[in-house]
Amino acid sequence: MHDANTTGTDVLHPETLAITAGRPPHGVDAPMNVPVHLTSTYGAGGDLEYGRYGNPSWTAFEHALGALEGGRCVAFASGIAAIAAVIDLVEPGGTVVAPRHSYTGTVGLLGELESKGRLRAVFVDITDTAAAVTDACAGAAMLWFESPTNPALEVADLPAITRGAHEHGALVAVDNTFATPLLQRPLGHGADLVVHSATKYISGHSDVVMGAVIAASDDLAAAIVRHRSLFGAIPGPLEVFLALRGLRTLPVRLERAQSNAQELVRRLTGHPALEEVRYPGFGAIVSIVVRGGADPADALVERTSLWVHATSLGGVESTFERRRRWPAEAPTIPEGLVRLSVGLEHVDDLHRDLVTALDSLA
Ligand SMILES: *Cc1c(COP(=O)(O)O)cnc(C)c1O
Asked: Is this prediction's pTM over 0.85?
């Protein structure tokens, strides 16, 4: 494996790493890509042994995403499987501090584990001061973190809060799905673990469900690998191949999606059908709050032709949904909030489609 992690990575830009990391060594007749290794077992006596313990197709993806995040990557069957593996690092009875506006699956998982007595979950407002969030970490085993948050798009002071949590001896884990390693590298700010739903921007084509953990240390990475081998939430070789193929173009996809998002925010701000346009200033997720609550927001998502009414995010195509249609969404999220995942279509087409539907609400 050509491992961009070990030599000279400091001088390579992320755009280059996304292309070069996780390739087979160059050479006569060498394939450009690590193939899809469809096998359940390997000849005995080596490092791999069995398909639940390792697969060269996983390794290629792990080298590439690890190089981008600056740590040791472990691929998982889904984002939530990666999250479950990280949360399982907490000792029984330990406390996990998390943002109240985290991904609903994360909140659901923490609630489930708390109801079984496995851990204690404490939810905080990460827009509070770094000192207030830090205080909540006293005695906690882990600070779980999402920034920007889904779907409120609140941004935390990541370096300050990470420092504060470490002073209390808590592990710091960050769900970096929204920002991607191109816009935010939490390990560089001292975080111990990063998690991705690779289903979203990393794969980028709405055709894969997959996740990953990136650990700052070899010890943490070994604990995560052990969890994957014991609990078995392994990704399929084809899914990993597709996720790596998607990762290759992440920089250009994100550049276009982000510029589309910024232009849409500029054009939509002040529209009379909207109470609010929320955008953290980077990335390609925008949340708009429709005036009048659930009914007009539900009407909006039915009246477009380009924008697809669907959950999930981070694909080349633009999708949107009213988040409170999910009973598990936090009650502090406005009923009329519609989360936009801005894709790569021409911004004029996206704008016209959305504004025509918005105008029809008046
Ligand atoms: C989708 C998502 C997840 C869950 O990932 P899956 O791949 O669906 O299991 C976790 N965190 C965030 C921020 C997400 O958007």
From this structure: yes
